[in-house]
Write a structure and sequence with these properties.
- The complex is a heterodimer of chains A (about 220) and B (about 375).
- Chain A is an all-alpha fold and about 220 residues long.
- Chain A is about 80% helix and about 0% strand.
- In chain A, helix 1 packs across helix 10, helix 6 (about 100-110) packs antiparallel against helix 8 (about 130-155) and helix 8 packs antiparallel against helix 11.
- Chain B has about 375 residues and is of the alpha+beta class.
- Chain B has nine helices and 21 strands.
- The longest helix of chain B is centred in the middle third of the chain and has 18 residues, at about 170-190.
- In chain B, about 40% of the residues are buried.
- The chains are: A mainly alpha (about 220), B alpha+beta (about 375).
Chain lengths: ~220, ~375
């Protein structure tokens, strides 16, 4: 059992979750309520990680993060280190890969709010911020829980992009999914099996918790 | 709430795109104005322009001296700062909150500790004592609507808007709500705008009504005025007047107070109306109530007003009334529509195909400028 890889995966999932759930929620709200020319293009870009092979996505991200790219140069300037083959690079890749999981359920939830309800909030004298906090956010909460569960579970299990962008540096970029692959390559099926079972259990528990929460929320309303 | 200027609501809206609007309306304090028109006539756009969720290109919205929108002076008050109470067709209650919390959301102007008590009072006023802690999903349609009314009133609005609030409840509940709205408006003293596509509802509740079509306000007046004296043939059609005809003015007889039209091969007397010259074509309407059936068992004695004869084309009993269509003799199927109590129709032996004659009361005939 590669506990270092397991902890690294949990850290990656947690950091991704903390950044992506609020950011994805804001993006989702903008896409749900905004009306602008480039909306279909942005929606397509958000959905892209779902259909692109992880190796292709990983390749472009590696190009983007690699030495000599403007992003790598900026990162170097700000934080004094490289982006490719580091934990930070892994987080950045993870944010891109999980974008559709963090945005779609929340966007659907915002879109499902009756426009009259938002107008009613305004005519109750609620400022846009108060209407967002007291009305929109609670109504979009089930979507956010689904988004969080999907993002968490998917980050734990992500393999292709992580391998492309991070390699498999123990303690830095070697996640549990890569550790399983390595164990299989080394014919250590017992270790691979233990890690796979753990990953399966966590994923099932996460999704089940999200479903239960969503149902509880639905019945309370 | 004491306010120096109680001039009521004034709305003027003009734009070509994206929704064409040409709207002028006023509603005094304590008055109930009905906006009546078919779907797509711009009723909801007007409400949204008043609440501020629709920003119209040009116009003015003001209540009691407060200006909410004035395109010339560049004034646009955001929706949450306009004191508007609105009851939506869907009620639009916050589904995750109790009835009390829904009302409290509109009590932001009160100190926090007073809100719960005030919300309870408002819910009691709409007869919802004991249901304060229920969520909208646990209330009936009528109860939800009362919560929506309580919430709309909570803010002490300068104007109350009702957007087809009766369309989603059953008939018995609707009639009870009509009575409650009638009672509430007596106590409130603010301008109330009711949007409806139901003419009968407008007639029953409104002091005045404005007829809307394709984003334009066509006519404003009391329901009785509009039905008796529609401004145009379009209004006449929209308020369901079926007896709309076109004739030529033959002459005026001001000394008798009469204008004479040519209709169905004879002369038709109407009230003196010098707006139209002899020889001019005009449209004219006559409400059902100004067409009187002659008794079929008693022959005519002497002159009757505008007598016309024909055969009954259709008969339809609708509740206590019979709707009849008379196909006029000597014309190519000109139809007069009139209604009479069922027992009168029976006593006169009215049946499809029988001969009958009617009088058109001259004072009931209203002349209109020719449409199109």
């Amino acid at each position: 059992m590669d506990w270092t890889a397991f902890v690294l995966s949990l850290e990656l999932a947690a950091v991704t979750l903390l950044i992506l759930v609020p950011a994805g929620m804001l993006l989702a709200r903008w896409l749900a309520f905004g009306r602008f020319f480039a909306k279909p293009l942005i929606e397509a870009a958000v959905a892209l990680p779902l259909v692109l092979p992880p190796t292709v996505l990983g390749f472009y991200l590696l190009e983007l993060f690699g030495a000599g790219s403007p992003i790598a140069w900026l990162w170097q300037d700000l934080f004094g280190g490289p982006l490719a083959f580091t934990f930070s690079g892994l987080v950045a890749a993870s944010l891109v890969v999980n974008l559709p999981f963090a945005v779609h359920p929340v966007q659907r939830a915002f879109e499902a709010i009756d426009p009259d309800i938002r107008e009613a909030a305004a005519s109750c004298g609620m400022t846009p911020l108060r209407a967002f906090l007291r009305v929109e956010l609670p109504l979009a909460a089930p979507g956010m829980v689904t988004a969080a569960a999907l993002t968490f579970a998917h980050t734990l299990g992500e393999f292709g992009v992580v391998l492309m962008v991070g390699g498999a540096i123990p303690g830095e970029t070697r996640t549990i999914a890569i550790a399983i692959y390595d164990r299989v390559q080394a014919f250590d099926e017992a270790a691979a099996g233990r890690m796979a079972t753990l990953l399966l259990a966590i994923s099932v528990a996460t999704m089940a918790a999200a479903m239960l929460f969503g149902r509880g929320w639905g019945s309370r309303n | 709430m004491a306010r120096s200027d109680r001039s009521g609501l004034r709305v003027a809206l003009r734009q070509d795109q994206p929704i064409g609007l040409s709207v002028e309306l006023t509603c005094a304090c304590g008055e109930l104005l009905a906006l009546v028109g078919p779907s797509g006539s711009g009723k909801t756009s007007i409400l949204r322009a008043i609440t501020g969720t629709l920003r119209v290109r040009a116009g003015y919205v003001g209540v009691d001296g407060e200006v909410w929108f004035d395109s010339e002076r560049g004034i646009f008050v955001p929706p949450h700062r306009r004191r508007v109470g609105i009851v939506f067709q869907s009620y639009a209650l916050f589904p995750h909150m109790t009835a009390r919390a829904n009302v409290e959301m509109a009590l932001g102007h009160l100190p926090r500790r007073e809100r719960g008590e005030r919300a309870r009072e408002l819910l009691a006023r709409v007869h919802l004592q004991g249901l304060e802690e229920r969520k909208p999903g646990q209330l009936s349609g009528g109860q939800r609507q009362r919560v929506a009314v309580a919430r709309a009133l909570a803010r002490e609005p300068a104007v109350l808007l009702l957007d087809e609030p009766f369309s989603a409840v059953d008939k018995a509940t609707r009639e009870r709500l009509y009575r409650e709205i009638a009672t509430l408006r007596r106590d409130l003293g603010m301008p109330i705008v009711l949007v409806t596509h139901d003419l009968d509802e407008a007639r029953m509740l409104a002091d005045r009504m404005t007829i809307l079509h394709r984003g334009r306000t066509l006519q404003t007046g009391t329901p009785a005025e509009i039905v008796a004296r529609p401004a145009t043939a379009e209004v006449a059609r929209l308020v369901g007047l079926r007896n709309l005809f076109r004739s030529r003015v033959l002459r005026h007889e001001p000394e008798r107070g009469r204008t004479i039209l040519a209709f169905a091969g004879r002369e038709l007397e109407t009230s003196y109306d010098p707006r139209f010259a002899a020889g001019e074509e005009v449209d004219w309407v006559i409400p059902d109530g100004s067409i009187l059936l002659h008794r079929r068992d008693r022959p005519s004695r002497g002159e009757r007003e505008n007598p016309l004869s024909g055969r009954i084309g259709e008969l339809l009993d609708l509740g206590p009334n019979t709707l009849a269509t008379l196909l006029l003799d000597g014309t190519h199927g000109i139809r007069l529509h009139f209604s009479l109590p069922v027992h009168v129709a029976r006593r006169n032996g009215l049946a499809v195909g029988v001969a009958a004659s009617v009088s058109l009361l001259a004072d009931g005939i209203h002349l209109l400028a020719k449409d199109g």
